[in-house]
């Protein structure tokens, strides 16, 4: 299905929503969009100076006035007028900047609803911008990414996508796919004459070039995911090693309960902290030991599950341990079990160990891992630890600044499918298969690329994407 085949619940019906966070503030914004919204606004808006109606105003103009509910003044506001198609939604729009108290904002919104607007659905303003052709689906998603960006890297990547950098790359891919597909399908129209409009060697070379470009975008996803979601960092170790204390120290707040009793953490706790402009998603896990009860057993199972998903594992052990051989075995086994994750051994409780340096060397030699000594309780060695975990993402903030990154799992999967279809087409050409089969794979690759920008999309995908937006966006 193409984007032009989709429709809104009520096409062009006036909608209204609060576009700023709920709460007490100096100012707030209520926005409206749709057919005839400026006429609806004129029912409740009166200019302080002059008598010009908003419906007669030119686009990109601001008007100082008052909103009235009957004869009762609701608030003094600034009304911004936007004319179709040069507005965010490509429809007639107005935005009212009012005072930011929740009662005031609620009255302004109610006024718009009573005037003929309906409350907007989550993301409906952005959805209309997409359906009206002002932006593509990838750019719409980038708006949401930019709003929720927690690091400079994530923000810059979202801005790049919102500008259309990735869309332009995909647009170029689509154009090349369309040309290759057109020549193949032209042959189908002349199948009886057995005409070949392009040699199979030339077609194979073109498809291989396209597949290489698609694969470069696929390869960027690993970096894009780290930028967008943060580095998944799991703190693991035996009970009472100080994992919760380390989490609290890195966060700078008492997030996890700390107790001298082993096994306090029964389930994992996730929080984020930012170091050197990179976000790390910290996970404090249940202590690794033989479980004595069902709840603890489930907590340990979840610990292993989170380690399987981790980009970085910090294995924490107590320098005061009397079971050093057990710790060495655990470190070696965990490192071997998670070869795709970066692994760093952290020796905790420096302040309580008289022979800490010797123990650290023994652990490093016996486990084949790098070991950092810290005291999670008083903060010794924490800066060194942060420096080492930063090595995982060294250069990430500057990575691909001149290029584009794929940050969405939806985009990644679509590109993987497109790459598979192109590979199938290459194999069909190599085996001198029927032209119809080659054309089918090229059409499939074209559709998969089109899914990313919304050239080919369905209502379910749209509903999933825009349900994650706030109502005023």
TrEMBL record:
**Where is this protein primarily located?**
cytoplasm
Provide the binding site for Mg(2+): 244, 265
One record GO biological process? tRNA wobble uridine modification
EC? 3.6.-.-
Q: How is the cofactor bound?
A: Binds 1 potassium ion per subunit.
Q: Name one Pfam family in it.
A: MMR_HSR1
Instruction: Please provide, in alphabetical order, the Gene Ontology terms of the cellular component aspect for this entry.
Output: cytosol
Query: Coiled-coil segments, which residues?
Result: 174-220
Q: Which domain of life is it from?
A: Bacteria
Q: Which residues form the TrmE-type G domain?
A: 230-394
What's the top EC group for this one? hydrolase
* UniProt: (6S)-5-formyl-5,6,7,8-tetrahydrofolate binding residues: 31, 95, 134, 473
**Gene3D superfamilies with a match to the protein in the record:** P-loop containing nucleotide triphosphate hydrolases, Probable tRNA modification gtpase trme, domain 1, tRNA modification GTPase MnmE domain 2
Give me the residues that bind GTP, please: 240-245, 259-265, 284-287
Cellular compartments annotated = Cytoplasm
Question: Which cofactors must be present for this protein to function?
Answer: K(+)
What's in the keyword line of the UniProt record? Coiled coil, Cytoplasm, GTP-binding, Hydrolase, Magnesium, Metal-binding, Nucleotide-binding, Potassium, tRNA processing
InterPro entries per the record? G_TrmE, GTP-bd, GTP-bd_TrmE_N, GTPase_MnmE, MnmE_dom2, MnmE_helical, P-loop_NTPase, Small_GTP-bd
Q: Which GO terms describe its molecular function?
A: GTP binding; GTPase activity; identical protein binding; metal ion binding
Quaternary assembly: Homodimer. Heterotetramer of two MnmE and two MnmG subunits.
Q: What does this protein do?
A: Exhibits a very high intrinsic GTPase hydrolysis rate. Involved in the addition of a carboxymethylaminomethyl (cmnm) group at the wobble position (U34) of certain tRNAs, forming tRNA-cmnm(5)s(2)U34.
Family assignment from sequence similarity:
Belongs to the TRAFAC class TrmE-Era-EngA-EngB-Septin-like GTPase superfamily. TrmE GTPase family.
Task: Name it.
Answer: tRNA modification GTPase MnmE
């Amino acid at each position: 299905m193409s984007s032009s085949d989709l429709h809104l619940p009520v096409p062009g019906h006036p909608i209204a929503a609060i576009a700023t966070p709920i709460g007490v503030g100096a100012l707030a914004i209520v926005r409206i969009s749709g057919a005839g919204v400026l006429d609806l606004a004129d029912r409740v808006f009166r200019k302080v100076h002059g008598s010009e109606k908003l419906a007669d105003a030119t686009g990109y103009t601001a008007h100082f006035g008052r909103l009235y509910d009957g004869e009762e003044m609701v608030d003094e506001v600034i009304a911004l007028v936007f004319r179709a198609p040069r507005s965010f939604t490509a429809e007639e729009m107005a935005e009212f900047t009012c005072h930011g108290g929740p009662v005031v904002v609620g009255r302004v919104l109610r006024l718009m609803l009573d005037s003929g607007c309906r409350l907007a659905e989550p993301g409906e303003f952005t959805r209309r911008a997409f359906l009206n052709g002002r932006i593509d689906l990838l750019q719409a998603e980038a708006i949401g990414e930019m709003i929720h960006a927690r690091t400079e890297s994530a923000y810059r990547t979202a801005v790049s996508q919102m500008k259309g950098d990735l869309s332009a790359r995909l647009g170029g891919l689509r154009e090349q796919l369309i040309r290759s597909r057109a020549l193949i399908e032209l042959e189908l129209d002349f199948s009886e004459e057995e005409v070949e409009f392009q040699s199979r060697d030339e077609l194979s070379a073109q498809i291989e070039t396209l597949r290489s470009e698609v694969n470069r975008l696929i390869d960027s996803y690993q970096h894009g995911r780290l930028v967008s979601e943060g580095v998944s960092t799991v703190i693991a170790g035996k009970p009472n090693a100080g994992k919760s204390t380390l989490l609290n120290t890195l966060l700078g707040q008492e997030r996890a309960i700390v107790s001298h009793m082993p096994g306090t953490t029964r389930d994992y706790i996730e929080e984020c902290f930012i170091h050197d402009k990179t976000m790390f998603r910290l996970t404090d896990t249940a202590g690794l030991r033989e479980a004595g009860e069902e709840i603890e057993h489930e907590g340990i199972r979840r610990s292993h599950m989170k380690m399987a998903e981790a980009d970085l594992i910090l294995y924490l052990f107590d320098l005061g341990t009397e079971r050093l051989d057990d710790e060495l075995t655990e470190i070696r086994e965990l490192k071997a079990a998670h070869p795709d994750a970066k692994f760093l051994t952290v020796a905790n409780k420096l302040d309580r160990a008289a022979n800490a340096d010797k123990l650290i060397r023994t652990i490093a030699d016996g486990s084949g891992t790098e070991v950092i000594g810290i005291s999670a309780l008083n903060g010794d060695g924490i800066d060194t630890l942060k420096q080492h975990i930063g090595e995982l993402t060294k250069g990430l903030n500057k990575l691909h600044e001149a290029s584009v990154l794929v940050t969405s799992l939806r985009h990644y999967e679509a590109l993987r499918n497109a790459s598979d279809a192109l590979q199938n087409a290459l194999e069909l050409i190599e085996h001198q298969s029927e032209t119809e089969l080659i054309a089918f794979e090229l059409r499939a690759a074209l559709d998969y690329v089109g899914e990313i920008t919304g050239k080919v999309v369905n209502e379910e995908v749209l509903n999933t994407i825009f349900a994650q937006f706030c109502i005023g966006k």
